[in-house]
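Hi R.,

Quick one: here's the Oxidative stress-induced growth inhibitor 1-like sequence you asked about.
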Amino acid sequence: MKDSMRSCEHVLTDDVEYKEVVVIGNGPSGMVTSFMLDGNVPYLKQIPEDLPIDEMLRARLSNLPEGQSLYDADLAELAEGLEGRSQNPIPILMDALLRPCADLGVQADSLIEWRYESDKQIEHVVLGQGPPGGAWHTFPPDVRTLSPAAWLTLPPHTDGGAERLSARAVANYCRRYVHACKLQRYFRNGVVVTSVTLMPETGPPCEHRCCPRKAKFLVTGYEKASLRAVRYACSRAVVCAGGAARGVSLPRAAPHATHHAAALRRALRHPGLSPLPVLVVGSGVSAADGVLLCAAAARPVLHVHRAPAPALARLAPQLYPDYCQVYRLMCGERPGHASLPGYTSLPDHVILDVTPLSADRTGDADDEDLIRPKRVRLLDPRTDTTKEVTVSIIGAFIGSKPDLFFLQTNLNRDRIDIKAKCTCGRVADEAKRKIDDKQFFLKNHWHHLKSVVGQSLQNCRSRYFHHTELNGKRGAPAECGGEGRCCAAEALSDGIGFGIDRSKPVDCRANPLAIDKSTHELLAAPRGLYALGPVAADNFVRFVPGGALAAVAHMHRAERTNAVL
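And here's the predicted structure, written out as tokens:
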């Protein structure tokens, strides 16, 4: 928070910068969190009598003292009993106030008024690997959103219509949002976060609100462009990243397949692509996007799928004619001129093996391996028969999982040496040299390297950094086994230990991060570590502001409590 007192004389090391809050992730979750941390405070407007909101909610809101901000309200009590499309009550509450009766089709003004109050400003930094907008910049530009434009705007914006937007439009909006809300100074883009660990105690803090000795967490990483170390000490950290960082791969097809729609779109435009059909695997919305991309490129499609996913089956034909077209074909409708003439449904088929066919290389191996013809053997379990098909591209869209490598399970603060120098650059150079030495062996599995082993290699480099941070042993080799797999006992990338079921990997839908519903603090971590957005089960942008409200309101309450004490 802004402080009129004299500046604090306590300092950490030269390469460690103190912030009250570090936000990890610069997508919509991180953006709206930054907007609230910047001192923008939500107040309730007068509720129109003819607005058909929940009567219990109306009664509770009427009891709020006049002039009280939502930061000072009992949000858990206000949200009690509300129903919506989120697992978390406060995001449902905030959505009901920002978009009253949206699910009923009612066009109503927001019930929230935003006021800037400088004394509510909390000094923070937002770290992200790419430009503001996060994963929206990785989607094919022409893919349209499931949500209408009105559900994709972030506070304080309330405009937007009922039309679906392209991913390009949403990505551009995110870029403009940061400038329109004057948040540029908080954003540090092009940064990979590698760890969040407890800070060692350096002595009693002074009375200054921004005293570095109040730091509880050490957030470390590196700049992607320069590989220069990035280290922030902070009192609180907010996890807003990693929602769809890694595509789930098929073991038999992984070395020969792409798991990202953007890569499929790029491959479909490759001048050397053969006229062979494209094999798309998956039953959900992402797989339907893959089918539609192939149709737009006039490519025949072989679609291996199970029963259509519930999310695809629930879409209304009037609003989502493209997805419903794919859904009908998956259910057995014969393709015609009005639908997708090159579509072939292969329900319940299983990929047994994939054999790349020889092809002359004329360009970049990255693209040429992806579009090289492949012979795929399929099993139809319904008839217990096999068939072989020859395809140009394999696109596997069977889900994604978050990459939570930076959440460390070793929280022993006495073993961290913040004075140890970071060796990210040297380790990165060594990792690159090893990759160059193995080019010949890996050239036929380049896409698998990028989607699976490449991620593991980055984790190996990061683990080397963690080893130095935790033990102070400089020059010790990273513990990595063969084939690019780290031999750590814990699967840190999967977030095991932090989900609702701590024995299973974190999944944004089936097993999200376990949080305190009233504050969005992680339950399996020290106090002061928050999570919101997809990793906390809020997979739609419309519910993101509620998670930010819960976290920021709790920060203000904690600050007031500390001031009294």
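The first strand starts at residue 17 and ends at 24.

Cheers,
M.
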